[in-house]
Amino acid sequence: MARARTARTFTKGTRTRQRIVEQAAALFNTRGVAGASIADVSLATGLEKGGVYNHFETKEALALAAFDYAAKLIREAIEGAVEGEVRPLDKLEAMIGVYRRLPGKPFIAGGCPLLNAAVDADDTNPPLRARVRRAMDRWRGLVAGIVRDAVAAGDLPPLDADALADGTIATLEGGVMLGKLYGNPIHLERAADHVTSHLRLLARSRPGVA
Predict the structure, then answer these.
(1) Is 209 part of any domain?
(2) CATH number, domain at 21?
(3) For residue 196, is it within any domain?
(4) Residues spanned by the domain of 29
(5) What is the distance between the alpha carbons of residues 32 and 26, in angstroms, rounded to a whole number?
(6) How many domains does the chain have?
(7) Is residue 121 within 8 Å of residue 128, measured between CB atoms?
(8) How far apart are CA 157 and CA 96, in angstroms?
C-alpha cells in the first residue's frame, strides 16, 4: 500500500511539475524571464507560490527547465519533418516548411523560443545563454549534416556546409523577427521563399547540370 501511495504521489508530482514548466515556458517566451514573476506562474497554474517553489527552488531554475521544454518542442517539430523525407534537399525544404507554418502553428505562445531566449539572455543570464547555444548548436549541426549529405549525394555542389546552415537559420529567424515586429507573416514567407530559392539555385549550379 505504501509503495502504491508513493507511486501515485510521484505521478501527481510529475504532472504538476510538467504543468508548471509548460505554463512558465509560455509566460517566459512571451514576457521574458525578467518580465514574468513566480506570482505570474502561480496565477497561470492555479498553484500557490509555495507550490511552485516545491518543484523549483528559484525562478532561474524554472526558466532553464521552461526553455528546455520549449527547445524540445522545436527539436521534435523539425526532426519530425526531416525524418519524413528521404532525399537531403527534401529534408531541408521540409524543415523550411515547419517555419512557413509558424504563424498558424507556433511552437509555443510568444514566437520562436530560440530567438526570444537568445535576446532575453544576452550577457545578463549566462546559464540560459548556454542552454540556448546548446540548442542552437544542435540545430546548426542538423542542418549542416543534411547539407553534407546533399553534397555527397551530388544534389548540391561542393560548399561550406556550416556557412549554409548559418545563413539558412539566420534568414529564417530574421523572418520570424520581422514578422513579429510588423505583425505580418509575409516577412517570414519571404524569408522562407528566399532560402528555398537559394537551395534550388545551388542545386542547379552543381557540376553536370546544364
Answers:
(1) no
(2) 1.10.357.10
(3) yes
(4) 2-204
(5) 9
(6) 1
(7) yes
(8) 20
For residue 210, tell me if it sits in a domain: no
| Cα 24 to Cα 33: distance, rounded to the nearest angstrom | 9
The pLDDT, as a whole number, for residue 206 is 73
Quick one: residue 123, left, alpha or beta (phi over 0 = left, psi -120 to 50 = alpha)? alpha
pLDDT averaged over 10-residue windows placed end to end, the chain, 210 residues: 51 89 94 92 91 92 96 94 94 95 89 90 86 95 97 96 97 95 96 97 78
What are 132's three cell numbers?
540556448
CB 21 within 8 A of CB 65: yes
Positions of E strands within the chain: none
Helix, strand or coil for residue 17?
helix
**139 vs 74: CA distance, rounded Å:** 9
CA distance 176 to 185: 8
Q: CA 140, CA 115: separation in Å to the nearest integer?
A: 14
CA-CA distance, 158 to 150, in Å (whole number)? 9
Instruction: Note whether residue 180 is domain-resident.
Output: yes
Name the grid cell of 114: 530560440
Helices (H) and strands (E) in the chain, counts: 9, 0
Q: What are phi and psi of 35, to 5 degrees?
A: -85, -10
Q: What sign for the dihedral angle of Cα 143, 97, 204, 154?
A: positive
